[in-house]
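Query structure, 154 tokens:
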């Protein structure tokens, strides 16, 4: 893939950069915090999330596939869970999908579908699970609200 194509794919991720308040639809759940920033000279997008119990803290690193420009999110959390998600950002729709085994068996399929607001200040979405990848069940809602402007990081 040409460097210009890779750079264009990474540039689309600029909408995430900054600090976000994260609210889950669990009754009585306090908000968490997520920070999206560039790392390694803007070669990767990182997402660090601090979540209230019982949700785990996590680190995600987004890469661009050099063959086709597709995104992959490498996910790690405080439970020791490691997963790979296929990721898209098409117009204002952000998706994460896990539909094959990676570092762990695929006991269930997962997907997140979120909509970025026109002003770029909120993302409203939901996680879903499926045993067979065909029939999906709602898991929980997530709302990201931007609370701090873009941060610069090498």
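Result returned for the query:
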């Amino acid at each position: 893939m040409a460097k210009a194509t890779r750079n264009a794919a990474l540039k689309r991720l600029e909408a995430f950069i900054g600090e976000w308040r994260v609210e889950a639809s669990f009754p009585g759940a306090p908000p968490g915090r997520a920070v999206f920033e560039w790392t390694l000279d803007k070669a990767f997008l990182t997402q660090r999330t601090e979540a209230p119990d019982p949700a785990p803290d996590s680190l995600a690193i987004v890469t661009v596939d050099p063959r086709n420009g597709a995104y992959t999110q490498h996910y790690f959390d405080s439970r020791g869970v490691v997963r790979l998600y296929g990721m898209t950002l098409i117009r204002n729709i952000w998706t994460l999908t896990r539909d094959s085994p990676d570092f762990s068996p695929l006991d269930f399929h997962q997907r997140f579908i979120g909509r970025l607001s026109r002003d770029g200040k909120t993302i409203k979405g939901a996680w879903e699970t499926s045993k067979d990848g065909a029939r999906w069940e709602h898991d929980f809602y997530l709302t990201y609200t931007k609370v701090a402007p873009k941060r610069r990081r090498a």
